[in-house]
Design a protein that fits this description.
This protein is mainly alpha-helical. It has 3 domains: 72-302 and 315-419, Na+/H+ antiporter like fold (Up-down Bundle), CATH 1.20.1530.20; 486-643, no CATH class; 705-833, Jelly Rolls, CATH 2.60.120.10. The chain has helices at 3-27, 31-51, 59-66, 72-89, 93-96, 100-125, 130-140, 146-154, 159-188, 196-227, 232-253, 258-276, 279-311, 317-347, 356-364, 370-381, 387-419, 426-454, 458-480, 487-511, 517-550, 554-566, 570-590, 593-634, 638-664, 670-688, 699-704, 714-723, 772-777, 798-807, 809-821, 826-833; strands at 725-729, 734-736, 744-750, 753-757, 760-764, 769-770, 784-787, 791-797. The termini are far apart. It is found in: Cell membrane.
């Protein structure tokens, strides 16, 4: 084939891709649907010109189009890794973890259910062997929700719904292709009735093997990319090689799922890349991958659509009935998951609620696309698959894909409109009015400065200012006097605006390198939770998200167990250092929000809402300070090291700004500027390194800060430090339950707790203790103790506490004071315990 002609055809396909996007926007249809329609038209046109006698002038072009080397391995080995890898890089993984249950249900369970549903329905309605029917079920079970996500974003649908669909699109390809590989093997072996138990037993092996291969490849790639920190193009080149090597290595070397390997590699790079690569390099890498994925996604649709006319050449009347069976079975299987299993998981509190309109949109938005056609093409190319099965697979997969694209794709926007998902809620409408009012006030100030700078005519300025002022007054009045907005909704609007400004501030600090890229994703994720919490549940949702941002997560608890029982200190050291940096970054951001409340929110919502937001902000700052103080006590000096690092990075940013200004003003040339920046980059690389945290629990230093232990000598303090156990408690967590056995005494290193007994409550803070009364009285605990702030506790067992009580007069005085407060005779306590000072000071604590 003429290489010039082939090149011309491929270049022309890029022109088609370029024209398809504005055409899709004009027709208000999904981009992928337009690409598919154009591809079918091009393929059908090529066949028509080859078979017609009207003209032979276009025959070479038609032959070049139909002769393109379009094979299934081109889709699976060239395009698919690019699409999957880019999808993982663009995901907000921490936010998707909030909805991991519905994502996994849709991506894995729904694929299995759809495969079995379509397979057994076809087996009942046709004479095909069960293995072939299940193979067709696996082929048509993979959805392509990119079109739906595009529409949801264009109509400002909730972010949570888009996240669920993006997570599904990422994982269901992997699940479907893994099942396809299993049943393809049965068909090629000629097994009419496969052993489903054995097939599904191999499924986890494919998944786990692929996940390990992808994780290992990504870890190696990140280490190599970190070595090339000053060579951005080298880093991008390595990232381009990563998904293909992971895919081929998993498929060819260990027989695992290459798709899973690509997903695992992308997720690993997404989690570790921002902390190991320079921020600008990471941003540029993601931009390059966005372009690659756009081209790959568009080409895979066009090329796959070119095959549709050929795949449908041998269609028969009875095939339309089987296509209908596939359509009904696939939709029914998806409906069972969305309207049966998901509500059940929500009722069991295993999944957040997905509202009914969203489930309907997800049901109708399960479009199929290029991956389905590529898998069908792989079946038609295999000489080990009987011809009759090849024909039916090609027709059913193609027919079902066309139905989803033409019928569901073109009506999806109408369905979304009927569900009301394209209309703003009253609170969103009020928010839009608020945004207009705030924006116009800012514009007025900027316009005033502009007119002063250019010394425009006073009459012209006065005339335009009057018109603009009338519009501004109307916008402010609309924002203030909305009859359908309650006071609590005004608070919610203020919280949404405050959380949105917090997110913008975080992005600005990341661009300035005041906040490290390592922490950027997590802090932005916390800000997104604040926005969604305020939008869905108002003040309570905002407060819940705020508490979560400073709480100890389950991973932290696992790291504590690993360090305490297995002496594996690495995870705890890394998470503790991350927590230090996260809290310091949060404190930096929160300190800047008060000005926004006074400047923007007060002007729109009034003093009362502004004062309430100031109060909520003060509580957040207090939570952060409390959590940070707990870490300062545990690891003295480390926070100061991080603060010094922050100051050095800020100084470098200001220095870079000065050099850039001097170059723009012509004070220094390009050569001098380059030399200065190279030196600055070297110093910045050193400043980016986070100081090492010695995770060895410095309990002795912590114990010295307790007034209760002030009189103990150094030897006793060291023994006490070894005897104490450190425990991290989240706000709201129950530490002691009523009627539980008394075995330990708790000392509060940081945070605060609340004791409740007999209808009375006490609050204790740093330096105080609890749990001693039940031990001294030899009774079951009568109080319930709950943390009211993230707290660090030191725990001492009963035997050591009694020995410590005998030697410490300060501790005895604290016990007496606690007993007096609760109406207990302290002398009775000490008589029962026979407290007396031992003659030998060397006695063990």
């Amino acid at each position: 084939m003429d290489i010039v002609l082939v090149t011309t055809v491929i270049a022309s396909l890029f022109l088609v891709i370029g024209a398809a996007e504005p055409l899709a926007a004009r027709l208000k249809l999904p981009f992928s649907v337009i690409l598919a329609v154009l591809g079918v038209m091009i393929g059908a046109g090529a066949i028509f010109f080859l078979r017609t006698e009207l003209t032979d002038a276009l025959n070479p072009v038609a032959e070049a189009i139909l002769g393109l080397p379009i094979r299934s391995n081109v889709f699976l080995y060239v395009f698919l890794p690019t699409l999957l890898f880019q999808a993982t890089l663009g995901m907000n993984l921490r936010r998707m973890l909030d909805d991991w249950v519905p994502i996994l249900v849709l991506a894995v369970v729904a694929v299995v259910v759809a495969t079995l549903s379509v397979g057994y329905a076809l087996s009942w309605a046709s004479t095909l062997p069960l293995a072939a029917c299940l193979l067709i079920g696996a082929i048509v079970s993979t959805t392509d929700p990119s079109a739906v996500v595009t529409i949801f974003r264009s109509i400002s649908a909730p972010r949570r719904l888009a996240r669920i669909i993006e997570g599904e699109s990422l994982l269901n390809d992997a699940a479907a292709i893994a099942l396809f590989g299993l049943f393809m093997g049965f068909v090629m072996l000629g097994m009419p009735d496969p052993d489903l138990g054995a097939a599904l037993a191999r499924f986890p092996v494919l998944i786990l093997g692929g996940a390990f291969a992808g994780w290992l490849a990504a870890r190696v790639a990140v280490r190599v990319m970190a070595l090339f920190s000053r060579h951005e193009l080298a880093q991008i080149s390595i990232s381009v090689a990563l998904p293909y090597l992971a895919y081929i290595g998993a498929e060819q070397s260990i027989g695992a799922s290459g798709v899973i390997a690509v997903v695992a590699a992308g997720l690993t790079l997404n989690l570790t890349g921002p902390g190991r690569l320079p921020p600008q390099a990471w941003a540029n890498l993601r931009e390059i991958w966005d372009v690659l994925a756009h081209w790959a996604g568009a080409l895979i649709f066009v090329l796959a659509a070119l095959l549709i006319p050929r795949l449908l050449e041998e269609v028969r009347v009875e095939d339309f009935v089987l296509v209908g069976v596939v359509i009904l079975a696939a939709i029914a299987a998806r409906a069972v998951i969305l309207f049966g299993l998901l509500p059940l998981l929500t009722a069991l509190r295993l999944s957040p609620a997905v509202e009914r309109p969203y489930r309907v949109a997800i049901l109708w938005g399960g479009l199929r696309g290029a991956v389905t056609l590529a898998l069908a093409l792989a079946v038609t190319e295999s000489f080990r698959v009987p011809d009759g099965i090849q024909r039916v697979v090609a027709i059913l997969a193609t027919g079902f894909t066309l139905f989803t694209l033409i019928v569901q794709g073109t009506t999806l926007r109408w369905v979304i409109g009927r569900l009301g998902l394209d209309r703003l809620s009253p609170i969103d409408e009020a928010l839009s009015r608020q945004v207009v009012a705030v924006a116009l006030q800012t514009v007025r100030e900027d316009v005033a400065r502009t007119t002063e700078n250019y010394e425009l005519s006073h009459d012209t300025v006065r005339s335009e200012a009057k018109r603009f002022g009338e519009r501004l007054d109307a916008a402010v009045k609309s924002a203030e006097d909305s009859a359908d907005i309650l006071d609590r909704d005004r608070v919610t609007l203020g919280l949404i605006a405050l959380a949105g400004h917090e997110r913008d501030t975080i992005l600005a600090r990341v661009r300035e390198r005041t906040i490290s890229a390592r922490m950027a994703e997590q802090i932005l994720s916390d800000a997104d939770r604040l926005i969604e919490g305020a939008r869905s549940q108002g003040r309570s949702g905002y407060n819940r998200a705020a508490r979560r941002s400073v709480a100890y997560g389950p991973g932290f608890r696992v790291a504590v167990v690993l360090n305490g029982r297995l002496r594996l200190s690495g995870p705890l050291a890394r998470m503790t250092a991350d927590r230090f940096e996260l809290l310091l970054s949060q404190r930096l951001i929160l300190r800047d929000l008060g000005t926004f409340i006074d400047g923007r929110i007060r002007r729109i919502h009034g003093r009362r809402v502004a004062d309430l937001l100031h109060e909520l902000l003060a509580r957040r700052i207090e939570m952060v300070e409390t959590a940070l103080e707990g870490l300062r006590l545990q690891y003295p000096g480390y926070a100061e090291e991080l603060e010094r690092r922050f100051i050095r990075r800020t100084a470098l940013r200001l220095e870079e700004r000065e050099y850039t200004a001097m170059r723009e003003d012509g004070l220094i040339g390009a050569e001098v500027y380059t030399t200065l920046m190279q030196d600055l980059d070297a110093r910045r690389a050193a400043a980016e390194e986070r100081p090492h945290l010695d995770i060895a629990l410095q309990r002795a230093e912590l114990v010295r800060q307790f007034p209760l232990f002030a009189e103990l000598d150094d030897a006793v303090l060291r023994r006490l430090g070894r005897a104490l156990e450190t425990r991290y408690i989240n706000a709201g967590e129950v530490i002691i339950r009523k009627d539980s056995a008394a075995r330990s005494v708790f000392f509060i290193a940081s945070g605060a707790v609340e004791l409740e007994t007999a209808g009375q409550t006490w609050r204790l803070g740093r330096g105080e203790m609890f749990g001693q009364m039940a031990i001294l009285m030899k009774k079951a605990r009568r109080a319930e103790v709950r943390a009211i702030a993230p707290s660090t506790l030191l725990v001492l067992d009963e035997a050591r506490f009694r020995r410590l009580l005998e030697r410490s007069e300060a501790l005895q005085d604290a016990v007496r004071a606690s007993a007096d407060k609760r109406g207990v005779d302290p002398d009775h306590l000490f008589d029962d315990t026979n407290v007396e000072r031992p003659p030998d000071d060397r006695a063990s604590v």
